[in-house]
Design brief:
This is Pyridoxamine 5'-phosphate oxidase. The chain is α+β, with helices and mostly antiparallel strands. The chain has 2 domains: about 140 residues, Electron Transport, Fmn-binding Protein, Chain A (Pnp Oxidase, Chain A); about 35 residues, no CATH class. It is built from 8 helices and 7 strands; from the N terminus they run H-H-H-E-E-E-E-H-E-E-H-E-H-H-H. A 7-stranded antiparallel beta sheet has the order 2-1-5-6-7-4-3, covered by helices on one side. Helix 7 packs across helix 8. The longest helix is centred in the last third of the chain and has 14 residues.
Length: about 200
């Protein structure tokens, strides 16, 4: 087992200069373009009960750039676990990973977050007349892009490799197993499309 930074560096060597220079403490023009194009960001956070990675998705541009050091992410109706928000209240450090369909490169943004429920800010993110529940304001401390290797290796965006939904257990089936069979999976799955559409915002 490796137990020290020295062992890791001896095994992997030093990063290329380009890998070091691509990290900057703000969002430059290129990184801002990636944020605006992304319909999906995964937020990593840490709290007293452990770690969390939560997806946030909407139409491209749903994460707004207030300035080169500040991002605003709306929070929409969900399952009310609010793991990310609970964590932020305990430890404001967050890490964001922006994905863009069809694009190999991804963008990582590390920083600290605050939770705002200021009415004007919530209304700024309204969709169909429904404001955001809260808005996460992220102060950027480091931003850098990842090369396309992971996406290329996974062939993530190749439609030929997309699974049919029936290849995996349905959400209803998963709930049924977790509830020792005492759950109406068929009704849950049948009503899911309409339920999801009705509760997006």
């Amino acid at each position: 087992m490796l137990t020290s930074i020295e062992q890791l560096e001896a095994l992997y060597g030093q990063p290329h200069e380009r890998a070091v220079r691509k990290q900057i403490p703000f969002l430059n023009e290129d990184y801002q373009a990636m944020v605006r194009a992304s319909p999906l960001v995964v937020i990593g956070s840490a709290g007293p009960d452990g770690l969390d990675s939560s997806p946030r998705g909407d139409m491209p541009g749903f994460v707004q750039i207030l300035d080169e050091r500040t991002l605003a992410l709306p929070d929409r109706p969900g399952n009310n676990r609010i793991d990310t928000l609970r964590n932020v209240l305990h430890d404001p450090r967050v890490s964001l990973l922006f994905l863009i369909p069809g694009i190999g490169e991804t963008l990582r943004v590390n920083g600290t977050a605050r939770i705002s429920a200021e009415p004007a800010l919530l209304e700024r993110f309204a969709v169909n007349g429904k404001p955001a529940r809260t808005v996460l304001l992220v102060t950027v401390e480091a931003a850098f892009f990842h090369c396309a290797k992971a996406i290329v290796r996974s062939d993530l965006w190749n439609p030929a490799h997309h699974l049919e939904r029936s290849a995996l257990p349905s959400a209803g089936a998963i709930h049924k197993r977790l509830n020792d069979g005492q759950f109406d999976a068929e009704t849950y799955d049948r009503e899911a499309p309409a339920r999801v559409q009705a509760s997006l915002y």
